[in-house]
Amino acid sequence: MARLPILQFEEKIVETVEQNPVVVVIGETGSGKSTQLSQILHRHGYTKSGIIVVTQPRRVAAVSVARRVAQELDVRLGEEVGYAIRFEDRTSERTHIKYLTDGVLLRESLSNPDLNQYSVIILDEAHERSLNTDVLMGLVKRLIKIRASNLKILITSATLDGEKVSKFFSNCPILNVPGKLFPVEILHSKDRPTSYLDSCLKTAIDIHVREPEGDVLIFLTGQDDIEKLVSMLEDRIQSLQEGSCMDAIILPLHGSLPPEMQVRVFSPPPPNCRRFIVSTNIAETSLTVDGVVYVIDAGYVKQRQYNPSTGMYSLDVVQISKVQANQRAGRAGRTRPGKCYRLYPSKVYQDEFLDVSVPEIQRSSLAGSVLYLKSLDLTDIDILKFDFLDPPSAESLRDALKQLYLIDAIDESGSITTFGRTMAELPLEPSLSRTLMEANEYGCLSQALTVVAMLSAETMLLQGRSKSTEKKRKHPSVDLPDGSGWGDHIQLLQIFECWDDNNYNINWCKDNDLQVRGMMFVKDVRKQLAQIMQKIAKGSLDVRTKQRRKENRQDYRNLRKALCVGYANQLAERMLRHNGYRTVGFKSQLVQVHPSSVLKADEEGTLPDYVVYHELIATSRPYMRNVCAVEMAWVTPILEKLEKLDTDKLSGGSAHIEEVAEIKQTEILDKKVDGDAVPDDRE
Ligand code: ADP
Fold this sequence. Notes:
Distance between the termini: 30 Å
Radius of gyration: 25 Å
Oligomer: single chain
Bound molecules: adenosine-5'-diphosphate
């Protein structure tokens, strides 16, 4: 392997870290920040006084980089070098270099606010501006005041926003690691293509036929498009006259690929063979694929956005920023001069692309983060004036407080409750944590754990492509007992229980179109959640796996009641004159039950008056996904709370939430197609 650029700066890095508590490291993607910084500091003795921890915004990157570092140090993964992502901890007592997702580090800081076990904290990929990394930046800024003598912080970024981060950390030093990038010729299309896939295909084939050897990296927006292009490419390449071109290997790359498929991109191709890597923006900076000489950039990325005034998520295909476009182009020049084919005119790049992408904190629901910050009891910090690199909008802070109040995590004056503290300890969205706690009261914790675990793994449960499988969900081949008409949560529970009855048989999953990997994950998550609940309850809970199955309506009723409490902020009321529901507690809006839902009307054809939902998602129209029927009597306390709601009081009276300047948004190409669950490759 060629010597990575960062290694030439080893002495300089060590010297700067030695003299400063915080250092910003800016270096081109692939320069070795993720894999080498931890090793450099390890070589210079920083693991003697504690563990070196490196955060990643994406699960895939945490696993892949840890694997690589273990390989380079010739140690077994999980021993000296390990990783921790949500629901998967591969570390041991001997671990001294630990990779983890930023969300996992945040949760660790709840039980150990000073993070004493760590001698160095590296916040990697800060340019991604993930919500959790942004919160961590505020947190470590506090931490260095407390642990100045024995903690080193490194913030790394691939893009040149170092000045801003340095300013945030009292003008800490910035180290620039120049990458040895070769020139990349940028070729813009004259017009926007009518079909991106066709245009990508044509460009890829042109390269394959005309250009000398070198791998091709193609950026698309998601799994569906990637799978389509992979199969189109396979067909076309096969039809090319044999012997007229070199061989080709076509590899997909996205967050939901099984790990053994993901690592395939790191194996070099055989001689006289060109690789086509068809990827989401995961290959933009998170993973560096060597050997790329040609990049095809369609100019879009799929972005999850949350609208705090409606409580609705959308998964929009938006234009990338200039910084992202340049990162993508840079991937072509790592080994020799390369070419980047941009499928958009240069005028679009100049006039329409934002300079930098909108940080996640400005397009996410903040309930989880606010709960977390509240539970830290930072008496010296007014929670709503927490020091963020870029502040979130006032509206989303109000929305977060409202949600936390409705699920009893904070009281009417905004103080965290005992319930809230327990919720923060669970690695789940606040609504699901609250459901578990309520289920425990009603004696149906075992079932609630199953539902929550099934929801955590939903995107990896079903075989095949998302759209067709959504249809299958509606007509599951699993022969389920009565009661699934109450909604999707009950059905998810029943699916798992059927598998349990079949002794977790792998063939049962296959026969029922369920992914074995997904179901095994559910089983594991369920077990882990049960252990965490046990720990919180100091061992006094009854969470037996094979709890007596009271598969009668009373049993499901308790579970639905618990869900209603947890989803108090995700409630909808049936519209009498319309065919649909109206959301409660938000700017009122008409929403529909998602077509994939198993929620059933009664014998008279009437749908339940009230439902709670897991997610409100804007596709071609606003849909509630994963819906559960609830009863009027359970809804009344929520309506009463909403009536009493006073957000000024919630925000602590004196602590007014300051309005921030309007958050710039980028042009939206189209809404995500119906039926897709919103993928979550974080944590
Ligand atoms: P940066 O963080 O600066 O983007 P990295 O440290 O991630 O850089 O990557 C440095 C080099 O290590 C790259 O050449 C990359 O291809 C290689 N690399 C990283 N992860 C793996 C892996 N899991 N397997 C093989 N090579 C890897």
